[in-house]
Amino acid sequence: KRIKELTSAVRLPIELHCHNDLGMAVACSLAGARGVVDAGQDAYINTAVNSTGERAGNADLVSIIIAIKYSSGFKNKYVLDGNVDLSKAWKIAKYASYAFGIPIPKNQVAVGENAFAHESGIHADGALKDRRNYELYDFEELGRGEPEIIETGRRITAGEYSGIKGFRNVYDKLEIRFKDDKEANDILELVRYANVHTL
């Protein structure tokens, strides 16, 4: 509301520069940009690759783009610059990580190791049936999934919360076959037990 009032008063494009000290840099940047655009001006959001910045970092570049492109509050209502190309997101995130010596957080939006990982039975089964059950966008759109030493796209994992569909998917990829469903279920129980985390 304040940004919208300020924009209406100055009648100039507004640049937003938010830090992530409260974990709200992306949310504040988006709310501010919405106020600017709703007041009839262009908004310019300062971002950083992998949120890298002073103290707790700045608004993450990919998170901002993904939110504008896919969240219901922005999609089809606000326009991104036509030069935005998400297919380079994965490579840029990796390069910045190496260049700055700062690992990409595992749960980083779109580019983190777990961004497309599913372990719990219902999630793994749903993602295998149709990725749209749990994924808002395709990992390929971000340039992930190209051949590398490790998988960079969707990952179905076997662990404490695995269901039989996800478990069998993991073992099928390893070309491990079970003699029957009972053997598969018995081994799944062992996998679950081996992955239980205690406090």
From TrEMBL:
Alphabetical keyword list: Transferase
GO biological process: carboxylic acid metabolic process
Residue ranges annotated for the Pyruvate carboxyltransferase domain, each copy included: 1-90
Pfam (any one): HCS_D2
Transmembrane segments: none
Keyword Repeat in annotation: no
Name of the protein: Pyruvate carboxyltransferase domain-containing protein
Organism, scientific name: marine sediment metagenome
